[in-house]
Amino acid sequence: MILNEQVELEIKDAKYIIIAKHQSPDWDAFGSSLGLYHLIKDNFPNKEIFLVGEPDEYNLDLWSKNLDINIVKESLLITVDTANIERVDFDQKKYVSKIIKIDHHIVYENNFGNYNLVLENTIACCEVITLFALDRKWKISQIAARNLYKGLITDSNRFMYEGTSSSTFFVAATLKETGINIQEIYSELYMRSFQCAKWNAHVLLNSILSNGIIYYVATNDEHLEWVNDDLKFEQWKSVVDVFNNIKEVKIWMLIYPKDDGTFGVSLRSNKYSIVEVANKFNGGGHRLASGAKIKNLDEIPAILNELHKIINEGERK
Length: 317
Ligand SMILES: [Mn+2]
Prior knowledge:
By secondary structure, this protein is α/β, with parallel strands linked by helices. It folds into two domains: about 5-190, inorganic pyrophosphatase (n-terminal core) (Alpha-Beta Complex), CATH 3.90.1640.10; about 195-315, Diaminopimelate Epimerase, Chain A, domain 1, CATH 3.10.310.30. Helix content is about 40%, strand content about 15%. The chain has helices at about 5-15, 25-45, 70-75, 125-135, 140-155, 165-175, 180-190, 195-205, 220-225, 235, 275-280, 300-315; strands at about 15-20, 50, 75-80, 100-105, 115-120, 210, 215, 250-255, 265-270, 285, 290-295. A hairpin with a 3-residue loop joins β10 (about 285) and β11 (about 290-295). Manganese (II) ion binds next to loops.
């Protein structure tokens, strides 16, 4: 039996389904969770499905807290957009009866699912989910399509990143066919507050550019000063995108404080693969967009050193 058929069969047979995504969710994580939730409801209306982990503030009613352990034990867990089991945002993950992993990240270690629907050459997990739904000839409602479209455009940066393929456009066209309003979706995702625009300007004005690498170290004080209802933490750290499309910049990076006292590192490039550096510093992701984690800021010179090596090697080729 082919993998898609097996995955469909597991979904059909499951008594309960739990859908979990990665910690610090982006829109591909939310879009995959919500998209898959609605897809399953569209096609198997009586299925009991639980969304877990950090909720989407506009869909709070769909999220479950503190699931009964007896339900968890009889559940099929579907993880979306998450490469490693450690990053799966679900406290009770070790108690589930089976796991299906649906993802598009590069697999470095062994896959953790009983079934692993992983397409490394897709731009978004939402692309994988849509391709699966099409393969199984599932009905796709507008609400499912809206959510899946959001993941597709955010992970591809509106079809700009190199992983955008003819398959990505095929999936986008399929979702558009359901009658979704594209303009409305873009407004929901990209409309920002004045506070957010000012934060972008602040970071750009105070960043350091040296030999092709630009970076900014955001502090705890800045977190307290800038993050509020008009500038959510996710938006606050996605400021890294402000460095895109600058002629002198080959690799760019944002370092920001995390709740646990460590620092997150967002690494980006439009040419040089930075995922190996992310791996060296407790992270991973994609060739041109990765995340890492450092314990303290003393590690910055070591990261810069690795990044300069990449640029120098690239230049010599
Ligand atoms: Mn993704």
